[in-house]
Amino acid sequence: MAEVIRVTERLHKRLDQAARLDERLDLQDLMTSYTVDVTAGLAFGIDVNTLEVPEDVLRGHMNHIFPMLMKRMNAPFP
């Protein structure tokens, strides 16, 4: 449960920073990173921290894998 709290605090910090700087955020990208961080922490016990490290290798792979998965899931014929 501590993993969820830690990752949620990182998300809150990122949102506060963006609000102070009047910065626009890609919410889909942000929530994808949040989901991956929470899942990795709960399932595997590792802290991947894709929220604070945008140039992470895992994040690069996520940008390729998730659109393909969504296209496949939403296709009328598999």
List the helices and strands and how they pair.
Layout: H1 2-20, H2 27-44, H3 57-73
Q: How would you explain this protein's 3D organization?
A:
By secondary structure, the chain is mostly helical. The protein is 69% helix and 0% strand. It contains three helices and no strands.
Task: Summarize this entry quickly.
This protein has 78 residues and is an all-alpha fold. It is built from three helices and no strands.
Oligomer type: single chain
User: How is the main sheet built?
Assistant: none
Mean pLDDT: 88
Rounded radius of gyration (Å): 14 Å
Identify the overall geometry.
globular
What's the N-to-C terminus distance?
37 Å
Percentage of helical residues? Answer: 55-70%
| Annotation field: number of helices | 3
Number of DSSP-assigned strands: 0
In the predicted model, the low-confidence regions spanning at least 5 consecutive residues are none
* Secondary-structure element pattern, one letter each: HHH
Query: What portion of the residues fall into strands of 2 or more residues?
Result: under 5%
User: What structural class do helix, strand and pairing data support?
Assistant: mainly alpha
